[in-house]
Write a structure and sequence with these properties.
Keywords: DNA-binding, Transcription, Transcription regulation. It comes from Nonomuraea soli. One of its GO terms (molecular function) is DNA binding. A two-stranded antiparallel ribbon has the order 1-2. The chain has one domain: Winged helix-like DNA-binding domain superfamily/Winged helix DNA-binding domain (Arc Repressor Mutant, subunit A, Orthogonal Bundle). By secondary structure, the protein is mainly alpha-helical. The chain is built from 5 helices and 2 strands. A hairpin with a 3-residue loop joins strand 1 and strand 2.
Length: about 120
């Protein structure tokens, strides 16, 4: 898995890691059941603390994107691909809105106004 972080990105590192993993899954680099490299290996490759990677992985687990299995590591959950694509695009839209000064609540109001 080739992940990169943007040092100019104002988001916390764990959010950037989670976003990069979501993107890799959405692009097909990983599919349901595929194992991810250990958190320590990802952290070493990115030059960040392993706890930062673990925080990102836990976030993705809570979203249902990843599964943690004792003795088997972390793998991609069998998620509905459409849901994952929508989640990815929604996150990208939220990031874009933030760049323009809109909050999450502002974005929700804009979406509610759509026909």
């Amino acid at each position: 898995m080739l992940l990169t972080l943007n040092l100019n990105d104002p988001r916390p590192l764990h959010e950037q890691v989670a976003s990069a993993i979501r993107h890799a899954i959405a692009e097909g680099s990983y599919s349901a059941g595929d194992r991810l490299p250990p958190a320590r290996d990802l952290a070493d490759a990115l030059g960040i603390n392993a706890n930062t990677v673990l925080r990102a992985l836990r976030e993705l687990r809570d979203e249902g994107v990843l599964e943690f299995r004792r003795g088997r590591g972390v793998s991609v959950a069998s998620v509905v691909e459409g849901r994952l694509a929508i989640l990815t695009k929604a996150r990208e839209l939220l990031e874009e809105a933030r760049r323009y000064g809109y909050s999450r609540d502002d974005l929700i109001e804009i979406v509610k106004e759509l026909p």
